[in-house]
From TrEMBL:
The lineage of its organism: Bacteria, Pseudomonadati, Pseudomonadota, Gammaproteobacteria, Pseudomonadales. It comes from the Bacteria. It is a multi-pass membrane protein. The chain crosses the membrane at residues 282-302. This is histidine kinase. It comes from Azorhizophilus paspali (Azotobacter paspali).
Amino acid sequence: MRLPAFLRRPRWRSLALLALLVAPLLWPLQQLAERYYLGELLQQNRQTLDLYVANLLGTLRRYEALPQILGDLPALYNVLRQPKQAEAVVEANRLLKKIRERTGADSLYLMDAHGLTLAASNWDQPDSFVGRDFAFRPYFSEAMAGRQGQFFGFGTTSGKRGYYFAAALREVGEPLGVLVIKVDLDHTEQLWGNTPERLLATDKHGVVILTSYSEWRFRATRPLDADELAEIAAKLPYPTRDPQPLQLNPRDWLIQQQHIEETGWTVRILAPRSMLERPVRAVLISGATGLLVLMLLLGLLLQRRRHYLERIALDTRTRQELERRVQERTQDLEELNRRLKREVLEREQAQQELVRAQDDLVQAGKLSALGTMSASISHELSQPLGAIRSYADNAGVLLDHQRYPEARENLQQISQLTKRMALIIAHLKAFARRDRQTPESVALQPALEDALALLVNRRRSLKVELIRDLPEATLWVQAGETRLRQVLGNLLANALDSLAERAPPRRLWLTTRLLDDGRISLSLRDNGPGFSAEALERAREPFYTTKTTARGLGLGLAICDSLVNALGGELLLANEPGGGALVTLNLQPATSAVGAQTVEDYP
């Protein structure tokens, strides 16, 4: 049998010619790879840019409204009215320092109408702002004009970058001064991390103010004209008055940007083109490798074809062997197909089991919430139920002795306690729904007497000596009658539980005093064992208790803390130096005694 002419030529020369014809196919492969990886990289960088912008805006918005909120504090107005009174200045300095520690702001300071700093949160630091004139800052002039002052700048005193929010303090429509809050942006910049992508934020002048690459900081991304340089020299937003240009070749970077309308900033993310070139190069290498493999396979096919033509006259046994091998391969494929079907079925069953597990988890969450609500109601109704039991037993004894007026009085007390239980249940339902109720004026002493009356039998059985230091004049606080009695009852019950663990004499002190900020403070001190270190740390956690499960659920202090916070008050736990526990309840004073009966007192 004579072979064709193209098969009689050297086969490797034919393969080389074929490779030259197929090689141009790598160019469209490169174009497709660049288009694909460019889209992936741009999408990834857009998500990263959105995330960082949201983080930056979240940091600024957390402090944006704070100057206007804090502008109503009396201590700040006292300094502006009497700037030379030392006591007023000291009180304002301490107040601003406390606010800085609680809010996490970098610094707070108060300036008069001329821009002179009268009080600051860093008054006791070497770089104190007190006595410094910041009238040249634009946030001062904006606040004095009735607008909210906003400004990014490099601190001339602290040497730190920050974003400033300012608001004017007014009296009869006239500005007395300006309260300024400085937000530290160094932490936000550190969150950008050290990644191949570079992030930078520029202000309206095109100067880099935040960046993940420190060498780019305070460099100009565009030429600055004379007016912009004059404005920079007047407002001093940077450590330099002539920002140097940023040498950046746009052809080396893939740049995406997002403008922030609130601040006038532009945030950019720059990805080096090497991040695109590397995967494209890998695709080209893979394509070239595939082409080479294809050539080798084609060469092998040609060689096999040639051998086939040479062995076409082989006997039938060789053909049968080949058919047998083909049949074996077919059986392997069928076995592989069955195995794949089996794996698909197992995966569908696993998916169904996952859905059932999710449903069980949701149901478990509902049962947990229901259990917490039931435990709270059981805990809060235990004291009224104990009092009802005591009154009922006394009423039975009085009826046996035909003392009907006194028995009727006990029955009236039981009726009042059942109403109170209904109010407690209604309050707990409202609390579970997060309903908000406006605090009303409530008399403190009657509520305290009512709570003591519920526990009088237990106090007498423990022989607890009650020592009171309460004023004769009625103290009115902002609270709800039921909620206040509920808190006082829980605190007194906890004190009696603590005193039960020690031998007589057992004493309980009740003291009230007026705090410097006008709040009314009620202190409950006992001579019991006091709080342990773990109890002081975890006492406000639900279901944490140092008692046995038969005596307590661990919800009393958790409920008290939530109720007091809802009333705008404060619950403090400590140990008395002389021994025993000290629980302090600080409540807001009521403006008047009108409305002493609150809405929540009626079912």
